[in-house]
Amino acid sequence: MSNGQSCGCSGGPRLIFACSGAADVGEIADRAARKLTRDGTGRMFCTAGLGGRISGILKTTEAAEGVLAIDGCPLNCVRSSLEQAGFTAFKHLQLADLGLEKCKSPVTEESINKVAARAAEMIIS
Amino acid sequence: MMRIQILGTGCPKCKKLAENTETAARALGIEYSIVKVTDINEIMKFGVMMTPALAVDGQVKVVGKVPSPDEIKKMLA
Question: Fewer CB within a 10 Å sphere, N or C end of chain A?
């Protein structure tokens, strides 16, 4: 949503939840989600708000056109957070599936772009 | 008193939501106040990224659509 005064009721956004975890893959997931937001592909949203059961975040997620979860590692915290909040209709990207292993994946522009590219394909499809 | 907030920048859908909410609240006979929140930055503080939205006593009940008065009655009950 822009900071302007334009109406925000023209269709739901595509929301991106990243694990943003402490490990290298968490940072890659986070930065890929922010890149996708900057690029206009989707909109990063607050994963912590799911766990915190923040009503505005939950209701916005319900109204979204699509939801993508980006998990850095096989703990799949984002997927679990969405499921525990009652969401089932979302796409899920796990960085290990792209060959990015936890604690063995330096945070580079290349890895961020790799994740963002795959995430963009998933969001649009 | 129930505090009802209509979150929206003033488009027709936002106005319709306010109208339906008034109808629902009057039908329930509850004591209430309705405030329209039109500042986008204030709206975003609710964690809401789409409008219109309806909040009751600080809790967001619906985002991005205009429920009927009957549906809103259930949210206010």
Answer: C
The Cα–Cα gap between B76 and B30 comes to: 9
Residue B44 in contact with partner chain A when CB distance is under 8 A: yes
Closest Cβ opposite residue A12 in set B9, B50, B55: B50
Shortest CA distance from A50: residue in chain B:
B47
**Helices within B1-77 (DSSP H only):** 12-28, 40-44, 69-76
* Bridge pairing between strands B53-56 and B59-63: antiparallel
User: Residue B53 in 3-state DSSP?
Assistant: strand
User: Are A55 and B61 within 8 A, CB to CB?
Assistant: yes
Pick the CATH number of A14-124 from 3.30.500, 3.40.1350, 2.60.40, 3.40.50: 3.40.50
Amino acid present at A106: P
Please provide residue B5's backbone torsions phi and psi, each rounded to the nearest 5 degrees: -125, 130
pLDDT single digits (tens) A9-45: 556 789 999 999 999 999 999 999 999 999 999 999 9
A66 — contact with chain B (CB < 8 Å)? no
